Amino acid sequence: SDYSQEPPRHPALLINCKEPFNAEPHRSDLISSYVTPVDFFYKRNHGPIPIVDDIERYSFSITGLIENPKELYMKDIWELPKYIVTATLQCAGNRRTAMSKTRNVKGLGWDISAIGNAVWGGPKLADVLELIGIPKSSQITPSGGKHVEFVSIDKCKEENGGPYKASIPISQATNPEADVLLAYEMNGETLNRDHGYPLRVIVPGVIGARSVKWLDSINILAEECQGFFMQRDYKMFPPSVDWDNINWSTRRPQMDFPVQTAICSLEDVNVVKPGKITIKGYAVSGGERGIDRVDVSIDGGKIWVEASRFQKAGIPYISDDTSSDKWAWVIFEVEADIPESAEIVAKAVDTAANVQPENVEVIWNLRGILNTSWHRVHVRVGH
Ligand code: MTE
Ligand code: MO
Q1: Do domains 14-250 and 260-381 have the same CATH topology?
Q2: CATH for 14-250?
Q3: CB of 209 sitting under 6 A from ligand 1
Q4: Which of 58, 216, 227, 240 is the S-S candidate for 153 at Cβ 3.0 to 4.6 Å?
Q5: In what residue span(s) does the Oxidoreductase molybdopterin-binding domain sit (predicted)?
Q6: For the residues of 249-263, what is the DSSP string, one character each?
Q7: CATH class of 260-381
Q8: CA distances, 332 to each of 87, 172, 288 (Å)
């Protein structure tokens, strides 16, 4: 693989792997604004970043179980109505490092910042599919298509040198309310190379793995995508399953992400000055479920207070207020006086009253995905 033409990246990113490039921002940088700046948005790649240098000639095909396969160019995409969707993208491997402390897991280590909240711009996939004759709110196409597969330009070793790919159900792809985008803008700017230039999929509320970057083709399929990342990765197994007894076909590919929280204003272990401290972080849930509450404890989880929360503290990229935040995280905050030493804990409740598990052990899984256990940090007052 050729990594000689990678784009420039911000020096403050914490690099988890150089080739392919995988990096996350420092915790405190992550919550310095409601919308994550592109530079500080985590980068999750499985191969070299593709180069598309002639935007006029760039195109992607729509093929598979449809009457008339079609080639679409950026001018076709730019002609469609542009939607602006604020959506949090989260890697299923977010907080994996903490899960591997319980018992070793396979996968790239991530702290708590394999997540970001951006303002994405582009046409809805539902409008693009309508262009090629698939009506809104389809459950199946006349030729039996039930899934929409996204295939990328990039090449990765997990696919034996083939492209990264994933699929979503056609019902979601053709549902305008699901806000699935073919995005060409991120935070009001042209999408950059790391994040999928010139065109990527954004599937709000779903683990990042399904938001395919560098779109090369869309295939309408009867079955879900058979790619590595759908069938042999990004599935949630119980703690009893290990590498000697795993049967991948017993589980569905993970789609929606569960309710998640993390404290970003503090490290795992902190020594602070006497006085008040700020406990600040993010909370988010998948599948269009919002956050109902964030609870914070400074005594390891005995006594809780409810944190204040906000969204949209001045989104700089949109002139009107028509965009919604139903796919976006909330930033929460609590000020607290702490004793000599404290275990600070945060957990959230989503609008379906889903809660987070108290301990990581009960959700341990061999791939180390979806660590949504209560987030705990330790603080000691230094004199
Ligand atoms: N798309 C392609 N083509 N190649 C990839 O490696 N990684 C996926 C997804 N889309 C990936 C991809 C994963 S696992 C995640 S979490 C998100 O992209 C990360 O998107 P970001 O790098 O823009 O943050
Ligand atoms: Mo991911």
Answers
A1: no
A2: 3.90.420.10
A3: yes
A4: 216
A5: 46-228
A6: GGSPPP-B---EEEE
A7: mainly beta
A8: 17, 30, 19
Mean per-residue pLDDT, 89-115? 95
375 in contact with ligand 1, CB cutoff 6 A: no
User: Relative to the CA of 116, which ligand 1 atom is closest?
Assistant: 24
Instruction: List the one residue out of 267, 266, 268, 269 whose CA is nearest residue 277.
Output: 266
Report how far ligand 2's centroid is from the alpha carbon of 67 (Å): 33
**What tokens were used for 248?**
């991948």
pLDDT tens for residues 333-377? 999 999 999 999 999 999 999 999 999 999 999 999 999 999 999
Q: Are 112 and 94 in contact (CB under 8 A)?
A: yes
Strands 70-73 and 269-272, bridge-based pairing: unpaired
Helix, strand or coil, per DSSP, at residue 48: coil
**27-84: per-residue pLDDT in tens?**
999 999 999 999 999 999 999 999 999 999 999 999 999 989 999 999 999 999 999 9
In this prediction, the answer to ipTM > 0.95 reads yes
pTM over 0.90: yes
- Tokens describing residue 98: 């903490």
Centre of ligand 2 from the C-alpha of residue 46, in Å: 9
Q: Kindly report the length of the chain.
A: 383
* Distance from Cα 15 to the centre of ligand 2, integer Å: 15
232, 165 contact by CB (below 8 A): no
Q: Where are the domains of the chain?
A: 14-250, 260-381
